[in-house]
Here is the input.
Amino acid sequence: MRIIHNLEEMTETARGWLAGGSVGFVPTMRYLHEGHITLVQAARQECEISVASIFVNPMQFEESDVLIRYPRDLSRDLQLLSSTNVDVVFILGKYILLTILSGAVERIGTCEALFRASFLVKI
Here is the structure.
């Protein structure tokens, strides 16, 4: 299980997969449960490469105290993911989200940006 913390490394790793077959991606918001594990196992079975991301998106919380109380146990999550033999775990930080969204309208496309505008505006 490879753990990646920065966008440049994840981008470079993903570029290497372009000719390597299918990639199963399971995004999570930490504090994994059986549903996440089932999805990662399915990705392992159905795809050549399996990736799970771990990121608590602060823009999904209306109140900051809810975000503060949101459960986090990274070592537990990594232990659970390790038991699934996932290939890559991408642990996103807030700065990565800002980097990704800096040109989001062009990359996501007008239609998606309209439906998810609240995520883009809160930055």
User: Anything to note?
Assistant: The mean pLDDT is 75. Residues 23 and 70 are 29 Å apart (CA to CA).
